[in-house]
Every structure is written in structure tokens, then in C-alpha cells.
# Entry
Amino acid sequence: MQKMLVSDEEKVQRYREKILSHFPPLLHRWFMRSTANPTEWFNKRRNFARSCGTWSIVGYFLGLGDRHGENIMCNKATGQCVHVDFDCLFDKGLALAVPEVVPFRLSPNMINAFGVTGYEGSFRKVCEIMVRIMRENRGGFRK
# Structure
């Protein structure tokens, strides 16, 4: 029996049709329901996007894997995300039975919660700032 090769584009299309269509983004609803006024709603979403950007880049440099819903928590009061369970550091995820090859977790649910700019707004700006800071300090913090 010959194995059929499936292109990456076809895999993405199948993923969107078969998986994402059954699990629409809902995190944005939590931001609406958990706030008393528009200013608080805006601040929580902005904090979420910024903290996701910070953790994404820090996690990338540390080789942090095993990121899923139970390992990314959200502060109810501020909207900031915080990562927990650091057992899979320093690219340990590459040695798993099914290697983790993505640099950080950025799900459609998270992107939707960032607001109308998606990953092109606060999230991207913070990622760029964090990469610049890491590059500027790549020699260490010793003077």
C-alpha cells in the first residue's frame, strides 16, 4: 500500500475545516464579561496582548515547550498571562516522541482576544521590543 503525501497547504486547509470550525475563538468573550466598563476591558486586552508577546519571546529564547491551556494562566484582575510548569526548558520539547517544532504557542483563540489588530498590534510591538532587548544583552548583563 502506497502512502499518500499531503502538502502543507492541504494540511492547513484540513486543520481549518475539520478542527477550527468546531472550536471557534471564545476568549474575547471572557474579556467582555469580566469587565465593568470599556476602559477596564481595553486595558485587560492590551495587558493580555503585551504579556503574551513578552512570554512568547522569553519562552523562545529559553526553549520553553509544553505550552497549552493548563500551562498558560490569565490573571482575572489585570488580563496578564503568566506561564507555569517549566519542566520542558532548553528545547527539551525537541526530544519528545512527537517533537515540538513551533517556537511559541499562538492560537487563534489568543489572536482573536488581542482585538481588531490581532497579532499586528500590541503583541507584535512587544515581541519586537523583547527581541531587541535580548539582542542588545546577548553578551550577558555583566559590566
User: Anything to note?
Assistant: The chain has one domain: 26-136.
